[in-house]
Amino acid sequence: MAIQPPDKNSWDETQFAARLDRLIGGLEPAKASPELKARILAAAGGVGGPRALLATLWPFGPLWRPATVLASAAVLGLGLGLALPAGEEASLAEDVVAMAFVSDAALEDVE
To answer: pLDDT for 5-47, tens place per residue?
Structure first.
């Protein structure tokens, strides 16, 4: 049963699509042959395990680079936080932050 493209005089696109849907809906689904299934499985390869999962979650290359930068930043922040006294430096920082919200203040006013 051949189907002709819609003719503007006899069919509109909706009727053509409905007829095509009925024709396709009546077909039996195609079954994959065992040879095709074997070829697909061979081409897909085996399950990669944790490395395949990691490559799926982080496809940007080696994970050690960003992990190293993050760990270095944490160590540096912890070291500076423990090494600097929480005396006048903290109050100076609070003054600068407070002055950021005042429009007519200048850094020379900080004591």
So the answer is: 656 655 678 888 888 898 988 888 889 999 999 888 888 766 6
pTM exceeds 0.85, yes or no: no
**Integer Cα distance of 111 and 95 in angstroms:** 9
Report the alpha-carbon distance of residue 17 to residue 82 in Å, rounded: 73
Q: Residue 54, Cα to own-chain centre: how many angstroms? A: 14
Rounded Cα distance between 67 and 73, Å, is 10
Which among 12, 94, 48 has a CA at the least distance from the CA of 110? 94
The two three-digit tokens of residue 100, written as one number: 């950021």
Alpha carbon distance 62, 60 (integer Å): 7
At position 75, the amino acid (one-letter code) is: V
Question: Which residue ranges make up each domain of the chain?
Answer: 61-111
Q: Is the dihedral of CA 97, 101, 107, 108 positive or negative?
A: negative
